[in-house]
Every structure is written in C-alpha cells, then in structure tokens.
C-alpha cells in the first residue's frame, strides 16, 4: 500500500467517524449534525495548533511545552482587535498604563545596560539592584492609579480598555502577530537552554501568560471574562427571522432553528478549512524547500549543521516564532468560535499536552500527520466519555442498579478520558514511534 | 516592643508557612532530581505520582478512621503513610516494567523518555480521578495547632499572635528526617554509592559490575517514598485535589532546576528559594511595616508586590533569571 493511499484512507476514516456522528445514534454516536459540526470545528482548530507544534518539534526538534500561552494570546488578540473601545478608558488611565509599561521596559533596558557597562563585582550588583528597585517603585507609582482608573469604569460590563472595534476576522492574523511578538521575546531569552530546561522554562512562561490574563483586568477583564465578542457570521436568531432563509430551509425540508444552527456552524467549518488548507500548504512548501531541509538537518545533527555554517540559534528563533504564530492564529479562531475569552479555562492538560498527543500520534515531522492527529484525537477526546460509559454499562450489566461499585464506576467513567489519552500516547510511542503517518 | 511584634507577624505569615511549603517542595524536587540523575530525563508524571501515593494514603486513612483507629494528637494519615508508600512503590515498579524498561533497552534519547512520561502523566492523572474523583478531599485529623495565636499572645503578652499548625510542625520534622536518611543512604550504603556512581558515569559503573536494573529499581522505590511523603504532607497542610497536585509540578520543577537538576543539595535549596520568594513577593507587607515605620509614614495600601495569583509566575520568573545567568542552576546540575 503506497503512502498516499494509506494517508487518504486514514483521513477517510476520520471523515466517516464524523459523518457517523451526524447520521446515526448507534453505539456512542449521538446522531446529531450539530454535534458532528462542533467536533469538526474544534478538530480543525486543533489541527492548526498541531501544525504549529509540528513546525517546532517535527521540523526543528524544539521542545516547546508552552503552547497554551500562545493560544491564549491569540484569544486576547480577539478582544484587543474586535471589541469596541470602552468610552473614557483611555483618558481615565489608558495613557498612564502605556507610560508605566514603557517605564518598565526602560528599567529592563537600563538593567541590561548596567550588566554590559559596569564591570563585574559588588558595584555592578549594587547598581543593578538600585536600577531594578527604583524602576519597580516608579512603575508601580504610575501603573496602580492608572489601572484603578480604568477598572473603575462600569466594572460589571467593562472595566477594561476595550479594543479597536475592527472586524473580527482581522483578529486572526493579529493573534498570530501578537503570539509571534511574545515568542520573539521568549525565544531571545530561553532558546539558549538545553532540551529539558527549555521545556520547563516554556511550561512556566505559559503559566505566566495565563496569570497575566487572569489578573490584569484592565487588559482582559481577567476572570470576569469577555463575553459577546463579535462574530464573522450572522446570529441564529436573525436567520430565523429572515423570511428568505426560512423559505430556503423549508425547501430542504429543515426546521428553521436546526437550519440556522447548522448554517452558522458550517460557515465556521468553511472559514476554518480555508485557514487550515492555507497554513497546510505553506507548511508543506516550507518542508520541501531548502529551508525545510536545513531545519531538519539542524534537528538531526546540530553540530554538523553548525560546522556547515548554519546559524543554529537564529534558525531556532525563527521557527519558534513561526510555530507560535500559528498557535496564536488558532487561539484567535477558537475564541471567535466561542464568542468569549475565558482566561480561567486555559489548562495545560488540554491546551498543551493534548496538542502534543495529537502531533505524536499523527506523526511528527509530517504536516498531514499533524492534521490527522488533530482531527482524530479531538474526536476521541470528545467521544471517549460516551465510549467509557458504554463500556462500563456493558461490564456491569450483571450487577444490580444499586450496587455501590457500579454506581461509582458509572460516575467515574467520564475520567477515562485522560486515562485513554495516556494509553493511546504510550501505545503509539511503543509500537509506532513515528506516528500514524510517519515523516518521509 | 514594636520591633518584636513585627518580627512575630513576619514569622507567622511568612516564615512558618514558607518553611513548611519549602520542605514539601524540597521533597518533591528531590524525587525529580533523583530520576534526572539516574534515569536521565525530566519526569513530567511526578506531580501525579505524588497524587497517587497520597490517594492510597487517604483511602487507608478513611478505612482506619472507620475502624476507630487514631494516632492520638497526630493525624491518622501518618499511620496510613507506609501503606501509601508501598502502593506507590508497586505502581512505580509496574510502570517501569511495562513502560520505561523498553526504552532503556533501546537506549532511547532523553526527549523520548520525556514524551513517554507525558503519557504516564495522563494515565496516572486519569487513574487518580477515576478512583477518588476530581474533588477536594480533606483528611487531616488530630490536634490542629501546636501553639495557637491566642495561647501565644497570652504567653508573651505581645499584640501579634504566632500560630503553628500541627501539620506544619510534622512537615518540617519529617522532611529533616527523610532528607537525613536519604543522604545517609546515598553516601554510606553500598546501593547508594552504586547509584551515585551510575549517575556520574554510566559506562564506568557498568564496568565495575554495578547492575543497572537494580540501581533503577532502587531509584523508583526511593522516588515513590519521597513523592508519597511530599504529597501526604502537602495534603495534610492544605488539601488534596488531583488538579492541584498536577500543578505542583511547576514549582517542583522550578525548585529542582534553580538548584541544578541532578543535585540533591540543589533540590533542597531550590525548594526553599522558591517557597520563600513565592510567599514574600505575594505577601501584603502592610502589617509588618506599620510596626516598624513611624506613625506618619504608615503605608496606605496593602504593600503587596504582586497579587497572590501570581505565585506560579514568581517561581518561573526566578527560574528564568537563574537559568539566564547560570544555565545549569545554582549548584551546577548536569545537562543530558
């Protein structure tokens, strides 16, 4: 069986799974097209994240465990680009916040300059401490009242600066840019570290990004969440009130409520597919180009590549930024799909480690593998719960309905999700370490 | 007198909690460091290993309590601890036999081991949630305080109280005993020496007839012990929740790395550095300052450097700063 046929069959298999989810309620399938489209949409977003991770790990061997942070930054970009600016926020403190942040940045620059200019010794430490402490005090003195001013404005609904009020689709590239900018900052500091040290550092940086989003209410409303973000597609209610749409739905024999929900979800599927295909095409071109070959050469033997005159640090930084930008785009798409930014829900199990499972199961180093992994693992992530309940109902069929063990097992069935994901990852690593669609 | 009050307030709100938390982190970081130096990978499943050992201990504690067994003023969990350790040891040996041994035989790259430990992390996390559920569990009983704030005030006549919880006392004492035993084991016993030899130079150790499988087995047994003790102490002091234990991975790794991966002394130092900086940077200093500065200079705000939600951020900011200046940690850890 040739590689192409195998790849096509695997994709066909996932497609059939999603079609079955929509068309039949046999076994664990729900028989709802809405549910099938929900799975498909998040699967597409996950596939994009997997492409980003594959770029870093599969192409260049960079072990980035901070994906969650970049996804969350993409979400933040949606708020910053597409919500309306809060009236009065900029005059109440927005300017002060910007000044304070500039002051903070200047402090860091001054600290770095001190490191460079003052010779090592007690004097350097003293000057450095003085610069840092003084900078921090001034920064807080400007920052705190400005933040209080912004957060005081109608905190039940706003309390943040708001955004630029631009169309929400612009937030997707903006999310990529924001993630890329932060990735540049992180890469400049952390990429010198070796594999395990880099992994832990990125894991921690992602946590820092999330705690900033949770606490800086002026920026993201924190755990109060930003809801009702604008959408690129019409609202269901408007469609149901649109006589032409209702008539069209009736032509297909569909109830207007169902037709409108399907219409919106299909719209998202189309938008996401376009983005996914574009990114996949670019990643594929990159892989086949001399640049991609150089990346893989660096990944396989850093020392040899360096001897050939390749600037390993620079290339690593480059691909770290590109991969993170893709994760940022996916994060912005996800927030648009949800119509809300909820910083409290970003969790490394779901937004970092699960993406890793997708890349490894699909096949690291192969873009199609990453996409397949994204779609397949997301389907399983959703469907393992009903599968587990089904399994336990079958196993415990002989027990009475009041049996304590049976009740406990049924109640715990939903936690089989993590267990199964771990098992899948271990089995793939053991028996097919290069993934379902291996690198060619 | 006011200076004394300030000192007591500082001990009460910063000193005591940070020492207890630091001991818990140090025990966790010692486990991570041992795996790194002998098996040569960063074990992402460590937080969930702690959760597993603690879960067994909790279940046994509940069983003891239902039978009316108690440990007087001390928590019953201490009686259940050995069974918890044994359960955790069993799980570690099974995991090593079914999962890690295959990759050791293949001489897989460290990064593959890390991936594998991700899979183990998922499975253990799921297993713990499956058995005990994702919710919060409290299992401490016995006397609550060694000395309560009220007794302390009555005793000394100071305005500030000092409270030391029983669990905090137990944590520190247990940590000291465990660390002493560990260092004695590593430095004095034959097995401990062969572990260190294997960690320093694998090939040389193999040449001198050290059995690597035995070294690995002992490492897992010690790691299971350390992880369960650390987990139970943390659970007694605060509470047990699977997700919290998974998140403990972050400060524990930060501690191990700040000290230098592979260095036991570094792990202990790292644990206390992380704990003290988390507590001091997120503590509201107003109370202490009002005792020390003159009346006119009293601070208006809470004088909190960062809000409490930033505690993970603090440990990682320290981590990044240390790594920038000393890429292998304060005590010169090893690089795989």
From TrEMBL, chain A:
Q: Which Pfam families match?
A: BPD_transp_2
Which keywords accompany this UniProt record? Answer: Cell membrane, Membrane, Transmembrane, Transmembrane helix
Source organism superkingdom: Bacteria
Membrane-spanning regions, if any?
A: 9-29, 35-55, 62-81, 93-113, 125-143, 163-185, 197-213, 266-287, 317-334, 354-381
Q: Which InterPro entries match?
A: ABC_transp_permease, LivM-like
Q: How does it sit in the membrane?
A: Multi-pass membrane protein
Where does it mainly reside? membrane
Leader sequence segment: none
Which compartments does it reside in? Cell membrane
Entry annotated with the keyword Oxidoreductase: no
Q: Does the keyword Transmembrane helix apply?
A: yes
Name of the protein this chain belongs to: Branched-chain amino acid transport system, permease protein
- Which organism is this protein's natural source? Phaeobacter piscinae
Q: What is the lineage of its organism?
A: Bacteria, Pseudomonadati, Pseudomonadota, Alphaproteobacteria, Rhodobacterales
UniProtKB/TrEMBL annotation, chain B:
Q: Does the keyword Membrane apply?
A: yes
Key words, A-Z: Amino-acid transport, Cell inner membrane, Cell membrane, Membrane, Transmembrane, Transmembrane helix, Transport
Tell me if NADP is a UniProt keyword of this record: no
**Entry membrane topology:** Multi-pass membrane protein
Q: What is its main location?
A: membrane
Which residue ranges run through the membrane?
A: 20-39, 51-71, 77-99, 111-132, 168-186, 215-236, 305-325
Compartments (UniProt record): Cell membrane
Family the UniProt entry places it in:
Belongs to the binding-protein-dependent transport system permease family. LivHM subfamily.
PANTHER family listed in its UniProt record? BRANCHED-CHAIN AMINO ACID TRANSPORT SYSTEM PERMEASE PROTEIN LIVH (PTHR11795), HIGH-AFFINITY BRANCHED-CHAIN AMINO ACID TRANSPORT SYSTEM PERMEASE PROTEIN LIVH (PTHR11795:SF371)
The name this protein goes by in its record: Branched-chain amino acid transport system, permease protein
């Amino acid at each position: 069986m040739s590689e192409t046929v195998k790849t096509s069959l695997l994709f066909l298999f996932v497609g059939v799974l999603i079609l079955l989810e929509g068309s039949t309620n046999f076994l664990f399938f729900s028989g709802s097209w809405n549910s099938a489209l929900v799975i498909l949409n998040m699967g597409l977003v996950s596939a994009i994240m997997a492409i980003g991770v594959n770029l870093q790990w599969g192409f260049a061997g960079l072990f980035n465990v901070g994906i969650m942070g970049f996804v969350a930054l993409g979400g933040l970009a949606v708020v910053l680009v597409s919500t309306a600016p809060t009236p009065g926020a900029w005059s109440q403190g927005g300017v002060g916040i910007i000044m304070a942040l500039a002051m903070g940045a200047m402090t860091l620059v001054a600290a770095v300059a001190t490191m460079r200019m003052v010779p090592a010794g007690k004097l350097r430490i003293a000057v450095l401490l003085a610069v840092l402490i003084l900078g921090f005090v001034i920064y807080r003195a400007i920052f705190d009242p400005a933040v209080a001013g912004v957060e005081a404005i109608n905190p039940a609904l706003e309390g943040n600066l708001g955004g630029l009020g631009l169309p929400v689709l612009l937030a997707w590239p903006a999310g990529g840019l924001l993630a890329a900018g932060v990735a540049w900052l992180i890469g400049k500091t952390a990429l010198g570290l070796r594999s395990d040290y880099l992994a832990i550092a990125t894991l921690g940086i992602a946590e820092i990004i999330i705690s900033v989003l949770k606490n800086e209410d002026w920026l993201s409303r924190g755990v109060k969440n930003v809801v009702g973000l604008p959408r690129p597609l019409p609202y269901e209610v408007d469609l149901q009130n649109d006589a032409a749409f209702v008539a069209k739905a009736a032509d297909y024999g569909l109830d207007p409520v169902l037709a409108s929900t399907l219409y919106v979800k299909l719209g998202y599927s189309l938008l996401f597919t376009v983005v996914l295909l574009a990114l996949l095409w670019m990643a594929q071109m990159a892989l086949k180009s001399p640049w991609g070959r150089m990346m893989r050469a660096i990944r396989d033997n850093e020392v040899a590549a360096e001897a050939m005159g390749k600037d390993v640090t620079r290339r690593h930084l480059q691909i770290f930024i590109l991969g993170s930008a893709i994760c940022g785009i996916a994060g912005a798409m996800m927030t648009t799909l949800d119509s809300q930014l909820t910083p409290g829900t970003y969790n490394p199990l779901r937004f970092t480690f699960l993406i890793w499972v997708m890349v490894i199961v699909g096949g690291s180093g192969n873009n199609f593998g990453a996409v397949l992994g994204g779609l397949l693992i997301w389907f399983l992530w959703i469907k393992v719960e009903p599968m587990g309940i089904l399994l336990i109902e079958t196993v415990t069929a002989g027990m009475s309905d009041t049996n304590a063990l049976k009740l406990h097992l049924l109640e715990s069935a939903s936690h089989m999700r993590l267990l199964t994901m771990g098992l899948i990852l271990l089995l793939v690593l053991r028996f097919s370490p290069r993934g379902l669609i291996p690198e060619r | 007198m006011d200076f004394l009050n300030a000192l007591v307030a500082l001990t009460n709100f910063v000193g005591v909690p940070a020492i207890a938390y630091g001991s818990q982190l140090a025990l966790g970081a010692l486990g991570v460091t041992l795996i790194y130096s002998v098996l040569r990978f960063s074990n992402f499943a460590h937080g969930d290993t702690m959760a597993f050992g603690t879960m067994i201990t909790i279940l046994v504690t509940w069983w003891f309590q239902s039978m009316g067994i108690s440990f007087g003023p001390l928590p019953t969990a201490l009686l259940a601890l050995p069974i918890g350790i044994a359960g955790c040891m069993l799980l570690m040996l099974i995991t090593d036999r079914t999962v890690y041994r295959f990759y050791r035989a293949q001489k897989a790259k460290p990064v593959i081991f890390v991936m594998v430990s991700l899979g183990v992390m998922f499975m253990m996390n799921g297993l713990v949630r499956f058995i005990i559920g994702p919710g919060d569990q409290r299992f401490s009983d016995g006397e609550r305080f060694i000395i309560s704030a009220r007794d302390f005030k009555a005793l000394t006549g100071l305005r500030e109280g000092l409270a030391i919880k029983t669990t905090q006392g137990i944590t520190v004492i247990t940590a000291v005993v465990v660390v002493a035993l560990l260092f004695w084991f590593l430095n004095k016993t034959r097995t401990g020496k062969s572990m260190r030899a294997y960690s320093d130079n694998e090939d040389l150790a193999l040449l001198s007839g050290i059995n690597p499988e035995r070294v690995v087995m002992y490492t897992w047994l010690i790691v299971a012990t350390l992880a369960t003790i650390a987990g139970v102490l943390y659970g007694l002091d605060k509470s047990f929740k699977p997700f919290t234990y998974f998140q403990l991975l972050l400060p524990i790794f930060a501690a191990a790395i700040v000290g230098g991966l592979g260095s036991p002394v570094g792990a202990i130092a790292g644990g206390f550095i992380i704990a003290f900086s988390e507590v001091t940077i997120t503590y509201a200093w107003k109370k202490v300052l009002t005792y020390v500065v003159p009346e006119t200079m009293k601070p208006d705000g809470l004088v909190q450097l960062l809000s409490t939600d930033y505690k993970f951020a603090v440990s990682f900011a320290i981590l990044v700063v240390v790594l920038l200046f000393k890429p292998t940690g304060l005590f010169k850890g090893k690089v795989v």
